[in-house]
Amino acid sequence: MTPLDIPTYGLVSLGGVTVGLSLFGWDFTRWWASNKKRLSLKALRRLAPFLLCLAYGTLLILSAGGLIGAAADWSLWGTNKVGEAILVYGVGGTSPDVTRGSFLALTPGGHAFIIIATVVLVAVASRRGFRLDFLRGILAGVSLGLASSVAGVAGYVLAPVVSFSGDLIVGLL
């Protein structure tokens, strides 16, 4: 339990990873099909908001708790349940737990970075309006952030970088 007594789950099932990879696949495939020169700066600029939201979602699920962490946990729970239903009733499969064994937690500076990133995301969304691709990217990141597979490698890469950067920025180092 967190200081606010909000339960945290921190478990991802195969169903959750399936939903996360499906959301990632949706946006990546649409980007791929709509860009002839995929490595041009213009094409990569179109993909950048989704990848940033994917990274943000991954960081959200690595946060310790609170209201933002609870929203990420509930989102993870929802993607797990949707994915489990699709796997069990859609194709007759199962949905085992695929959470990695070691949990990466953010430092206090990393949590400050999450708050700053949340404020920036809300500022962008309030200026340009609600964008479904932002939501898909964040949900994909939340679903994939704790996975023990290649899909969860972003958590291994992002957590130490963001924690160090956040600690450095706010003066904890």
Key traits:
single chain, 173 residues, mainly alpha
Would you kindly provide a written description of the structure presented here, covering whatever features stand out?
The chain is mainly alpha-helical. It has helices at residues 14-34, 41-61, 66-91, 108-128, 132-144, 153-170. α1 packs across α5 (132-144). The relative contact order is 0.22. The model has no long low-confidence stretch (mean pLDDT 85).
Topology of helices and strands:
Elements lengths: L13 H21 L6 H21 L4 H26 L16 H21 L3 H13 L8 H18 L3
Describe the structure in brief.
It contains 6 helices and no strands.
Distance between the termini: 28 Å
Average pLDDT level:
85
Helicity level: 55-70%
Proportion of residues in β-strands: under 5%
- By DSSP (H or I, 4+ residues per run), the number of helices equals 6
Low-confidence stretches: none
Give the overall silhouette. globular
Number of strands: 0
Please summarize the sheet with the most strands. Answer: none
Give me the strand/helix succession.
Answer: HHHHHH
